[in-house]
Known about the structure:
- This is Auxin-responsive protein.
- The chain has two helices and five strands; from the N terminus they run αββββαβ.
- It is α+β, with helices and mostly antiparallel strands.
- The longest helix has 12 residues, at 18-29.
- It starts with 17 loop residues before the first helix and ends with a strand.
Amino acid sequence: xxxxxxxxxxxxxxxxxxxxxxxxxxxxxxxxxxxxxxxxxxxxxxxxxxxxxxxxxxxxxxxxxxxxxxxxxxxxxxxxxxxx
Length: 84
């Protein structure tokens, strides 16, 4: 979460997909991600889950297929939607 330096490791392989991961992140950090669409990203949310891939690029959680995500995700970050 931006402004809150939580250094937690999350084993992405225990999740079956994005909905399960997002629910746990929402519960852990007390935010609501809103609905994701490929065209517009996350709508109706002040915070947006992003991740850093193995190339160092920051992308929206949900942009790539789940299996690709769990192999390429190095770091998760919950950003303010206004910073995107």
